[in-house]
Design brief:
Chain A has 409 residues and is α+β, with helices and mostly antiparallel strands. Helix content of chain A is 56%, strand content 16%. Chain A is elongated, with a radius of gyration of 31 Å. Chain B has one domain: Rossmann fold (3-Layer(aba) Sandwich), CATH 3.40.50.300. In chain B, 31% of the residues lie in helices and 25% in strands. In chain B, the strands form 2 sheets. In chain B, strands 3, 6, 7, 8, 9, 10 and 11 form a 7-stranded mixed beta sheet that branches. Chain B has a 4-stranded antiparallel beta sheet with strand order 2-1-4-5. In chain B, α4 packs across α5, α4 packs parallel to α6 and α6 runs parallel beside α7. Chain B starts with 15 loop residues before the first helix and ends with a strand. The chains are: A alpha+beta (409), B alpha/beta (259). At the A-B interface, α1, α11 and α14 of A face α3, β6 and α4 of B.
Chain lengths: 409, 259
């Protein structure tokens, strides 16, 4: 009972102090809130990238991804992509002969010039696919096959049909049914008009930038790549009774110069290429926590220093170090709780806002995911920060030399 | 702990034996300080060229219940140092201080804190009230340590404030009170734990004559059944005490005044 009475008394003094120093209290709460929010949003972004990425690979309905090595964009070259697989159509046909393989889809990523009027050109990404069956279409229809290849002669009819994503539609101010110029060079683009037959976000989700999607051989034609028949990546679906891992090993043995990955391996490779970005995110979390801790501690210490004579007087009057320190620690805990509550209330709307912004700018959806674990992380950070800052500030009072402080008054 | 029925009159101090027994005694007390070794923070360093300074030298003194004693002397004479020793805030370098029957230099810091809580009330020149708390809450702060319930703390603090004439200022914060009122709140706080000894360091130093007189009236009333020791330059204070102990350069002057 005595303990409860002491604790409530300490809490009431702490609350009174915080209410009296409202500006400082507000600053401390803002500091803690910012630190917790940053931690949760950055961790939520990490989680979102991982989970959404995994889902994208799983939803693509492919089992294996074959590349000629690390895929790199090289803006100085026409088409701008390195490490292609050559003779892609032939290679795809070879793969289709295998009993363990159900479908093969060579994909070519290139940068192209586009224009809605043939006068002003912009550079965007393009994706060549053997058929529009593998892409999701939200408006309009797909295009008619890949007839231009014609067994490698490239003299079959060109469909001149193209899919665009919403960002390209906005960029060029065009819609389904309109015609646009597309080519690997401006001259080529002036000579090649395509009819927009549908809207698809698949290419955008692969590349994170405005993308047009067209038949593979037509993209090769307009970018001058028919001589080498390149593909950036070949997506493979195995038969139901095959083990993708085993098929990958067989293919790796048959094609040692290529890189063959399962969904999971391809996803990990993608993440590994973003190691610097991920490390940057982790550093930002640490910095946010340290900055929040420093701000809270600084404000608490300034409150302690401002009232050092009063605390010294309390100790002189017989109040124990535990009581005096308890007031400071309680203040820190209250600031931590307030910061935690505010940030928990703000994190979902802010995550939605960032998601909306990211979708608008990059086309990626669900970039930030706030799971219960993320909320728990925020609460943990708030608890740790408030306890640590309270203990550090409180330690200043444990060894308080009352006589020296009172003598100097 | 059961509070006395009023702040001025102790029910446990009615016979002659308690009046004769000293509340605090110091015998041949000296206090030396090392100048240049004070620490002002976590990262401060001690000076290598420290100098020993004697603040008090061979002081002996005894104060009994019911006495109102003044400590006089110029700045630097050792008044505050002696007050700190008598209040068990500090311990002597040599000699001994006995407070409520216990030698302070044999006690740990925690034990001395408890001894002060049980037996000493302190009034500071600058009041040192917590600005965020009401007068009543300030008076009640020492009672936190004793485990009083919220109701008991409020009741006791309200009584004490009424006895120093501040029953209409209970809910005011220090910023809303005059200097004299703040000092009376500080006196009430010093009496909260019903101490045997009240010490006051320049209690009228920040007050005008009229306000200072009112605070002195309160301290004089307090001294009817406790030992009260006041350090002051103020002739008004020294005129009101039972006896004056004069210090100069850390030494007690041979002739003390008795008023």
């Amino acid at each position: 009972m005595i303990l409860v009475s002491r604790l409530t008394a300490i809490a009431s003094v702490a609350v009174a102090q915080l209410r009296h120093d409202r500006t400082r209290t507000l600053l401390a709460v803002i500091g803690v809130t910012l630190a917790i929010l940053s931690t949760m949003l950055l961790a939520g972004t990490g989680l979102g990238v991982v989970e959404t990425g995994q889902e994208k690979f799983e939803n693509a309905g492919r089992d294996l991804w074959i590349t000629g090595g690390s895929v790199q964009f090289t803006p100085s070259q026409v088409g701008g992509v390195q490490n292609s697989i050559y003779d892609a159509h032939t290679f795809a046909d070879e793969l289709r002969q295998r009993d363990s393989i159900r479908t093969v889809g060579p994909l070519l990523f290139q940068t192209v010039y586009v224009s809605s009027d043939g006068e002003e050109f912009q550079t965007i990404a393009s994706m060549g696919v053997p058929s529009s069956a593998g892409v999701s279409i939200s408006e309009g229809r797909g295009f008619q096959g890949d007839s231009h290849y014609a067994n490698g002669s490239y003299n079959g009819p060109m469909t001149h049909e193209i899919l665009i994503d919403e960002r390209t539609a906005t960029l060029l101010d065009v819609d389904v049914g309109d015609r646009i110029h597309v080519g690997g060079t401006i001259t080529s683009a002036r000579n090649n008009e395509f009819t927009i037959v549908g809207v698809s976000s698949t290419g955008n989700q692969f590349l994170g930038t405005p993308t047009v999607t067209m038949p593979l051989s037509e993209l090769q034609e307009i970018t001058g790549k028919t001589g080498t028949d390149p593909a950036t990546i070949v997506a493979v679906t195995t038969t139901n009774d095959s083990n993708p891992q085993a098929v990958a090993q067989d293919l790796q043995t048959a094609y040692p110069e290529l890189t063959i990955r399962t969904n999971q391996e391809q996803f990990q490779a993608t993440l590994e290429r973003q190691a610097v970005v991920l490390a940057g995110g982790a550093s930002l979390i640490v910095l946010a926590v340290v900055a929040g801790l420093t701000l809270t501690l600084n404000i608490l210490l300034s409150m302690v220093y401002q009232q050092l004579p009063q605390y010294a007087a309390l100790k002189a009057l017989g109040n124990s170090s535990i009581t005096v320190t308890g007031v400071v620690i309680t203040q820190a805990i209250i600031v931590g709780i307030l910061g935690c509550v505010v940030s928990l209330g703000l994190v979902i709307p802010m995550a939605n806002g960032i998601d909306h912004l990211a979708t608008t700018i990059t086309g990626f959806e669900n970039v930030v995911r706030i799971s219960p674990q993320i909320l728990l992380l925020g609460t943990g950070v708030a608890t740790t920060m408030s306890l640590l800052s309270g203990l550090i500030a409180g330690t200043r009072l444990v060894g308080l030399d009352s006589i020296r402080i009172l003598r100097n008054q | 702990m059961v509070p006395r029925s009023t702040i001025y009159h102790s029910s446990s101090s009615t016979n002659t034996s308690t009046e004769v027994d000293p509340v605090v005694t110091c015998t041949d007390v000296s206090r030396h300080f090392t100048r240049g070794s004070s620490h002002s923070g976590w990262f401060s360093r001690s000076s290598q060229s420290a100098e020993i300074v004697t603040a008090l030298s061979n002081i002996s003194l005894s104060v009994t219940r019911g006495e109102f004693v003044g400590l006089a002397g110029p700045s630097g004479s050792g008044k505050s140092t002696l007050l700190h020793l008598l209040a068990a805030l500090d311990t002597p370098s040599t000699g001994s201080v006995t407070l409520a029957g216990r030698q302070t230099n044999t006690l740990s810091t925690r034990q001395r804190t408890k001894l002060r809580l049980d037996h000493v009330g302190i009034v500071f020149q600058h009041f040192h009230l917590l600005p965020s708390l009401s007068a009543r809450a300030n008076v009640a702060t020492p009672l936190i340590e004793l485990g009083y319930s919220r109701r008991q703390r409020r009741q006791r603090a309200t009584e004490l404030l009424a006895n120093v004439g501040l029953d209409d200022r209970v809910h005011h914060t220090p910023g809303e009170l005059s200097g004299g009122e703040q000092q009376r709140v500080a006196v009430a706080r010093a009496l909260a734990t019903d101490p045997d000894l009240v010490i006051a360091d320049e209690p009228t130093g920040e007050l005008d004559t009229t306000t200072g007189k009112r605070v002195l009236d309160v301290l004089a009333a307090v001294a009817t059944d406790r030992a009260v020791i006041v350090a002051s330059h103020d002739p008004q204070v020294l005129d009101r005490v039972d006896r004056v102990i004069r210090l100069r350069d850390g030494h007690r002057q041979k002739v003390d005044e008795t008023t």
